[in-house]
Amino acid sequence: MYKIAVAGTGYVGLVAGVCFAEVGHQVTCVDIDEKKVNVMKSGVSPIYETGLEKLMQKNYAAERIDYTTDYNSAYKNADAIFIGVGTPERRDGSANLSYIATVARQIAESIEKDCLVVVKSTVPVGTNDKVEQFIQDFLVNDVKVEVASNPEFLAQGSAVHDTLHAERIIIGTESKWAEELLMKIYKPFNLPIVSVNRRSAEMIKYASNDFLALKISYMNDIANLCELVGADVQDVAKGMSYDARIGNKFLNAGIGYGGSCFPKDTKALENIAKQHGYELRTVKAAIDVNKDQKTLLYKKASKRLITFNGLKVAVLGLTFKPGTDDLREAASLENVPLLLEQGADIYAYDPVGASNFAKVHPEGKNGKGNITYVTNVKEALDSANVCFIFTEWGEVKAVTPGKYRELMRTPLVYDGRNIYSIDEMKEAGVEYHSIGRKAVE
Ligand code: NAD
């Protein structure tokens, strides 16, 4: 059992902290957000993740986890401090490392015994060398401190499962001491560990995320061509998926990737390459395709409808994917403002993301348009002139094609997630536009 502190209680930090407690370590989670800390102490998860709250309550009751804003008390006697604070995108696409720097400074001022600092946040290659130097420069006590890289691969929506059953744990270290300590901390998880040097570990994270983003953009590019040549991208993906070299995951065409990782990690790697005088052409292409893909359906619908002014527009799904309340880089955030600018009367449904969305677009009049948040799909579709599907929530997939025909004033559906088959929409008499497939008109 090790004494572990975790800096940052977002998707990465909180889930890591709870899972470390679950396997028997003594964990203190630190966050600067006092409200969040109080919420967590009361047994409530500040983020929506399946199974997280139950594990928080179980481990809090067993006194294996606690939450605090007092970083000094959490860091001073820790065997290891995991950093999971954000590394958001700067305007130029590079990663903003100011949160990491603040934590590094706080660690340097707090630690009173030898300690391994483990960076889980996604950081540009070489950052952890600098973090180690930075901590050593500001150290107050005479202790040994080293920095290791341990990038995180969880996917939001299945974060707890992905952590407890990870396909691999990547550790990047520069000494036997650091490598062995991290191995021991992860031993109870009983998962495959890949041990490499620190820079390779940092690179593995970007190379993995950007490969997945590339795969998505590639399929979207192919989907757009499918439409032009009369092929069906879902059949194409099915045919491709039997090839073990391609695999059967991440072949779904749609309105592009969002979330807190792919958009920023593609731009960050492109930026890292640029700084080294290299143009990462493949990743740049993935970024460009994704940018256009997000508003593809809006553009199609604009041509079909001339204007959205005064139309009742049903929006199904706001989050960047199902199973999360996260809106970062979601397609809805690009499309809803375009619709509002045109004077659309939007009725938006999302099972968990509506209150976060309302912080950006409050209910009621928004410029020329109007937005109302509804609690079920039926209310959104009722008398609607047009419907956009942005997120494939189970509640949205459960809507039968006949319901669009029955409830909408004009059954006109733009599906960004290819939920329905062309045949069933045709049979139900719905005008249906999706991605990379023939339209039903
Ligand atoms: P997040 O924004 O959800 O959470 C960050 C938390 O850190 C916030 O609660 C914030 O209050 C807290 N914080 C900021 N400064 C602090 C400080 N000085 N001390 C303590 N807490 C502080 O971030 P996230 O989505 O969990 O991502 C964190 C990192 O992990 C990023 O680098 C991200 O790229 C990476 N990552 C994210 C995911 C994901 O799916 N979200 C997956 C893999 C990797």
Automatic annotation (TrEMBL):
User: What SUPFAM superfamilies does UniProt report for this protein, alphabetically?
Assistant: 6-phosphogluconate dehydrogenase C-terminal domain-like, NAD(P)-binding Rossmann-fold domains, UDP-glucose/GDP-mannose dehydrogenase C-terminal domain
Annotated keywords: NAD, Oxidoreductase
UniProt-listed InterPro entries? 6-PGluconate_DH-like_C_sf (IPR008927), NAD(P)-bd_dom_sf (IPR036291), UDP-Glc/GDP-Man (IPR017476), UDP-Glc/GDP-Man_DH_C (IPR014027), UDP-Glc/GDP-Man_DH_C_sf (IPR036220), UDP-Glc/GDP-Man_DH_dimer (IPR014026), UDP-Glc/GDP-Man_DH_N (IPR001732), UDPglc_DH_bac (IPR028357)
Pfam families for this protein: UDPG_MGDP_dh, UDPG_MGDP_dh_C, UDPG_MGDP_dh_N
- Reported EC number(s) for this entry are 1.1.1.22
Q: Where is the UDP-glucose/GDP-mannose dehydrogenase C-terminal domain?
A: 314-422
Q: Does the keyword NAD apply?
A: yes
Q: Which reaction does it catalyse?
A: UDP-alpha-D-glucose + 2 NAD(+) + H2O = UDP-alpha-D-glucuronate + 2 NADH + 3 H(+)
- State which pathway it belongs to: Nucleotide-sugar biosynthesis; UDP-alpha-D-glucuronate biosynthesis; UDP-alpha-D-glucuronate from UDP-alpha-D-glucose: step 1/1
Annotated coiled-coil segments of the chain: none
Q: Which family does this protein fall into?
A: Belongs to the UDP-glucose/GDP-mannose dehydrogenase family.
NCBIfam families tied to this protein: NDP-sugDHase (TIGR03026)
Descriptive protein name: UDP-glucose 6-dehydrogenase
Organism field? Evansella alkalicola
